[in-house]
Amino acid sequence: MKAIGKGRMWASGAGLLAASALILAGCGGGGAGASNETTEEESGGDAGTEASGECGTDMTIGVAMPTQTSERWIADGNAVKEGLEAAGYTVDLQYANDDIPTQTQQIDQMITNGADVLVLASIDGTALSSQLDAAGAAGIPVISYDRLIRDNENVEFYVSFDNYLVGVAQGTALLYGLGLVEMDGTPAADAPKGPLNIELFAGSPDDNNAGFFFGGAMDTIQPYIDEGVLVVKSGQTKFDQVATLRWSQEAAQKRMEDLLSSTYSDGTELSGVLSPFDGISRGVITALQGVGLGPTLSEGLPVVTGQDAEVASIKLINEDIQQSTIFKDTRLLAEKSVEVVMDIACGVEPEANNTEDYDNGVKIVPSYLLDVMTIYKDNIEQDIIGSGYWTAEEVASGVPAK
């Protein structure tokens, strides 16, 4: 993973530090006070890191994750919980099984039970306003985890990946799979002239990230559509036409089946499918294979992209079935989230590397964005197995060991 540029850019530090002051009032000991007086220059390093571990370890951190139906979110929740507990915090981790009322009730209970900080990965980024209002009134800082919570001022910080670049990477992977560009996105010398038929899928309309993914991908492939090299034969090119509620694999399979019967039943060749998530990708692939395409890329299966490096899809990539996925190392996301909690606990402004792009409808939310990587069959060994994200045995079986 490439290093992210650092810089202390802070858009709403006053609100965070005021909330932190309330927390620190109950954090006994001299460490917190001392760390608040220490600058990076005086400490010879990052003041936030210096402060971390010196205060706030009697705190309870509420962690809300959207679902346990995706292995990605199970891994996120476990990694955040383990990191916070290793730092000395008590953790209340809850999964909501993609049910909005369940998640709102869980967060209400965290607030009632006296959580000191909330780390929230929302199901619907617009559905938590009353919970955030209650957190704000109680002086409880809220960290938006991977999915930006919208339409409320009580979001102190956002930790995620560079979601626009995720879309760019997905669009580039699709173009690469179609022979139009090299792996690095430069034009291929022997690129086909087209037209090549593709179809588009997007993520859930209630997830703020889905728009960034789709926007980055479309900015990347739109020039080829404008030139007539790529054709979306169904005509479905708008986000609201191609969105997949709750990122549902079943809904994606059904829509792909409908597209095949309505648009490609005359034998017209489908060359590729832009998919924003591995679960959607597997639904699309099931539909494609169901009409006799493939069964592998080398045997005529259309190019299908993905995201999240889910082990079931890594297995498919290794078997020449799914073309690619975007690897977002959620271990790094969990680690950064723990750092942000520790900074907040000690009254230190968390490090942001983006203070311009993530407008939640009420404010620009200071953000830290991590880098991503595209996984093809050729780099599974080095970047997935070699990094310890999945073992060779897990990739072979397509099932997590735990």
Strand order of the largest sheet: 2-1-3-4-5-11
- Return residue spans where pLDDT drops below 50 for at least 5 consecutive residues: 1-53
Tell the overall outline. elongated
What fraction, in percent, of the residue positions are helical?
A: 40-55%
Describe this structure in words.
There is one protein chain. This protein is of the alpha/beta class and 402 residues long. The chain has two domains: 13-161 and 329-374, Rossmann fold; 163-307, Rossmann fold. The chain is built from 16 helices and twelve strands. It has helices at residues 13-24, 31-37, 40-43, 47-51, 71-86, 100-112, 129-137, 163-177, 208-226, 239-242, 249-263, 278-290, 311-318, 330-345, 380-385, 392-397, and strands at 60-65, 90-95, 117-120, 142-145, 157-161, 196-200, 230-232, 272-274, 303-304, 325-327, 367-370, 373-375. It has a six-stranded parallel sheet, with helices on both faces. Helix 5 packs parallel to helix 14 and helix 11 packs parallel to helix 12 (278-290). The longest helix has 19 residues, at 208-226.
Short description:
This protein has 402 residues and is of the alpha/beta class.
SSE inventory with pairings:
Elements: H1 13-24, H2 31-37, H3 40-43, H4 47-51, E1 60-65, H5 71-86, E2 90-95, H6 100-112, E3 117-120, H7 129-137, E4 142-145, E5 157-161, H8 163-177, E6 196-200, H9 208-226, E7 230-232, H10 239-242, H11 249-263, E8 272-274, H12 278-290, E9 303-304, H13 311-318, E10 325-327, H14 330-345, E11 367-370, E12 373-375, H15 380-385, H16 392-397
Parallel strand pairs: 1-2, 1-3, 3-4, 4-5, 5-11, 6-7, 6-8, 8-9
Antiparallel strand pairs: 10-12
